[in-house]
## 1
Amino acid sequence: GKTALAVWAMQESYKRKDFDFFISVSAKDRELTSESIRSIPQTLSTYEELLNQILSVLGFSEAIEEPVSSREELTRGLLSDTKSLLLIDNLETVEDERIIEFLERLPKPVKAIVTSRTNRVQRAAFPIQIGPLSVTEATGYWDMVCRSKGRDSLLKATPAEKVRIVSSA
């Protein structure tokens, strides 16, 4: 839910051309499969990886070989001259506090969307708490997905069956 909403917001901003650059990184370290929860490789776990990703998107991948302090200075300088949107997904799995510090001091006009189960970014954040769907919202979502996937037979479930289905997820 959190990731889907963040990606949707980023895509809408892209369509409206709200930003010059869009940078997306994920600290997701596991995924839910039908059999279990399994580990997956993260694309973001260190501050260096964040700097490298930003530099790559901004067209300065050759700077990745520079010392961290030089990369940070270059990254901040480049970002301060751009309208960029940074998406960091699953921040709660990141242990490198320098990422939090970086987010707290983003140069203007850069904006960030951060998904996390915990509220670690304090000064630069305007948290939006998103609770679970209501039963009405969940069954409405069920119907929308069934229609979009061409599963019309599933739309014939009774209201009670739909509630049982969405409540079991």
## 2
Amino acid sequence: DTLRNLGQLGGSQTVLEAILTRLSDGFQKNAIAFSLGRTLEASGENELALSWYAQAANPPVSRLLQVKAQLAQLKLLIDKKVWSAAIALLPTIDQNLGQLPLSHQQIYSQINFAQRLTELKQNSDQKSPLMSWEAIAARLAQAQKNAQLLGDKRGEIYAQGNLGKIYEQTQQWAIAQNLTEKALQASQVLNAPEM
């Protein structure tokens, strides 16, 4: 992972593949498969990345890693405009997200899922109850509340900003502006210009 973050994608892939050949524990293998998927995605090898993400999501795997791998698959399927496969993955991700305990990772996964649902709604002609603006807004509102419970200001700001985007999409301008302004002000208080 460090090599990937440093831009040394070939070295990252070599190390991860070498580690995979030595492991017998399924949980560890799936964690390495996920990392390999991320490295291959960064290298632009999206087909291979998809297959490693799929492998990482298969049992035995922690629920959190399963969700992360499925969200990574969903992102690539959306990027490739493979709408039917993306839609087919939604109920499984939703179910697995519902089984995660309240945590920072759960909040960010919910926000990530809401962003992917928004992309699908905006770009495909496919339908799913999970893709209604109301369902996406409810997911983000819950993520915001969960972030408040955990005292996660960044999570709260990300959820609030994304919720503002949903209200913008539904042309509820006053609510959208209010949420977006609050998120912007909060990010300035945190001195987090990247947000």
